[in-house]
Amino acid sequence: MGTGQKRNVPVNLNAMQALYQLKYETANELGIQVPANDYWGDLPSRQCGAVGGNMVRKMIAAAEQSLIEQTVAGVRQGFAQGLSTTTNPSTVNIPPAN
To answer: Whole-structure pTM over 0.90, yes or no?
Structure first.
């Protein structure tokens, strides 16, 4: 695709900038020399694929961590709510066994 044919319009500019930053961080971690003119077409597809694959791994790990934190927060909130609604055990009337 030529340089004048870009049809992808970013919905959120901050997200696009964050993805570009993630791309360059991942490339540096993998030891891939980033082109100075920002044209990745001269790099082998194996290297570009490695960058993209590692980006996806990082994004999945971040999403999983976020879900874990949300679940833990919900459990803590439910536990705290359960503790606040329990009555004093010494005042509970237990019926006698028949």
So the answer is: no
Three-state SS sequence of the chain: CCCCCCCCCCCCHHHHHHHHHHHHHHHHHHCCCCCCCCCHHHCCHHHHHHHHHHHHHHHHHHHHHHHHHHHHHHHHHHHHHHHHHCCCHHHCCCCCCC
CA distance 56 to 46: 15
- When divided into structural domains, the chain yields a total of 1
Does 1 reside within a domain?
A: no
44-88 pLDDT tens trace: 999 999 999 999 999 999 999 999 999 998 888 888 887 777 666
The answer to whether residue 97 sits within a structural domain is: no
